Amino acid sequence: MILAMQTFYGRLVLPLLALWFTVQFVSAKHTVITRRYKFNVQMTNVTRLCTTKALLTVNGQYPGPPIVAREGDRVVVNVTNNVQNNVSIHWHGIRQLRSGWADGPAYVTQCPIQTGQSYVYKFIIKRQRGTLWWHAHISWLRASLHGPIIIYPKKNASYPFPRPHQEVPIVFGEWGNADTETVINQALQSGAQANVSDAYTMNGLPGLMYNCSANDTFRLKVIPGKTYLLRLVNAALNSDLFFGIANHTLTVVEADAVYVKPFQTNIILITPGQTTNVLFTAMSQPPNATFLILAGPFATGTAAFDNSTSAGVLEYVANGTPVNTSSLPMMKPTLPAPNDTCFRSQFSQKMRSLGNPNFPAASAPQKVDKQFLFTVGLGLNPCPQGQTCQGPNNTKFAASINNISFIQPTTALLQAYYFNQSNGVYNTTFPDNPPFPFNYTGTPPNNTRTLNDTRVELLPFNTTVQLVLQDTSIVTFESHPLHLHGFNFFIVGQGMGNYNASTDPANFNLVDPPERNTVGVPSGGWAALRFLADNPGVWFMHCHLEPHTSWGLKMAWVVLNGNGGRSQSLLPPPKDLPPC
Ligand code: C2O
């Protein structure tokens, strides 16, 4: 399996294997294997759509190199910052049990790594296998600083599905001809929406449907009759995506590194932050057509969006030679319309945790200690005196949770918490419920001013939490992919309109709810989550649409240590933790 990765990504794997053998050699029963990586953040010129840009990359690669490990392994990544920007890296979906210092969001768990400095991220992958991903977690640097995390099952453990012939990561991203830092800085300055991207990409390649892009097309080589596992990652900055392959049915088997009950579909939907593993089988005979692989936007708000499509090609190889289909008809999968919310709700209903005797699922908390209702949505801030703003009616776009638009502190929350220096950094008054209830999905009230502050929610160790996320119609409905650091949650319910605390819980799925780290809160609706606060530390939660995060749709949970000593406590900070 690991060797199959080598054909795809090349040179990283050999040192890894060497290391693996060394460690195996001395391995007793409980030896933890360590996977070591060196990430050099550097500027690299990349050309797409006939535009050359200096991109921030890891080791010169765009998208970045994969982290490959097994469940139970320890991962050590030495990140060195060789660029002018401050940098931090997040290991999206990794639970980071007690190792919050390695989580990565800038000014939440660490101060960023400054130019010329290094930081070594160390964590153990526990009870997770499948696909996750890593990305920069400061400003919009994740536009080009991202890559997959591939977690194989433990040695000698199998998949809950037939072993595929080959495994291929496909990382979706966005390419903008403009510099993304300039784009977001201008938007924050003017109060306007950020300019949208020029193309979607698969593994960094926009593909056939854009001008000046035919040579930058993702090609997936397949052998007739063989089955493939695609490890899909949505690393796009600002778009949920539909994905499909013409004339080939996909079987969804895993999402956010948790196995799901397999189901078949022609199209999948994936929000920024989510990962999905799908199987498909190549036709038994070389085809009489060219089959396209497409990824295109799902967008429900009134905001402008990049309404273009990334196209790759499924390339059949028969008897060792590629079948030339270029003169044959081109078949495209039919992606839903960009605003197809029906598809969204039907698709999300199909996601169920696997939970069979050989692959038991973790169970959702059956009873809850603490309940929260959080509104998530857009808002408007007044224009500063003496300035003109380009949001609606001379305002600035904002976004909030329970009307609090999160202000990024200048020191890391986790340090402030650990060293008892929260004064002037954050306060613990985050509202458990909307500060003023209104008809969240009706005509919005006039006074929609948000409060700008740095507030957190405090949770005692092992609290069982029910969190309902409610979209609002302020400015516009929109689907918000909410991501929680440090935990997986169970999506026990979702619906349209306003959440009803007396009638909706009766319909919750506590039997086989999907367990994920990112949920697409329905546009004009709500999602109910449950999780066990068993991981002490400070954990970020935010919308994974980057403009919304920049506008303040984010907050943090502080989970206290338990009384059980070291095993229920956050570990001390590492010596090389970057200073602010
Ligand atoms: Cu994928 Cu806080 O991020």
TrEMBL record:
Domain Plastocyanin-like: 40-155, 167-317, 430-561
Summary of the function given for this chain in its UniProt record: Lignin degradation and detoxification of lignin-derived products.
Sequence similarity: Belongs to the multicopper oxidase family.
Cofactor: Cu cation
Keyword Nucleus in record: no
Catalytic activity: 4 hydroquinone + O2 = 4 benzosemiquinone + 2 H2O
Catalytic class of the enzyme: oxidoreductase
E.C. number(s) listed in UniProt: 1.10.3.2
Gene Ontology terms: biological process: lignin catabolic process
Gene3D superfamilies for the chain: Cupredoxins - blue copper proteins (2.60.40.420)
Cellular compartments annotated: Secreted, Extracellular space, Apoplast
Organism per entry: Chamaecyparis obtusa
Protein name listed in UniProt: Laccase
SUPFAM superfamilies xrefs: Cupredoxins
Molecular-function GO terms, alphabetical: copper ion binding; hydroquinone:oxygen oxidoreductase activity
PROSITE patterns per record: MULTICOPPER_OXIDASE1 (PS00079), MULTICOPPER_OXIDASE2 (PS00080)
InterPro entries (alphabetical): Cu-oxidase-like_N, Cu-oxidase_2nd, Cu-oxidase_C, Cu-oxidase_fam, Cu_oxidase_CS, Cu_oxidase_Cu_BS, Cupredoxin, CuRO_1_LCC
Note describing how the cofactor binds: Binds 4 Cu cations per monomer.
Gene: CoLac1
Location, primary (coarse class): secreted
UniProt keyword annotations, A-Z: Apoplast, Copper, Lignin degradation, Metal-binding, Oxidoreductase, Repeat, Secreted, Signal
Signal peptide (UniProt feature, chain positions): 1-28
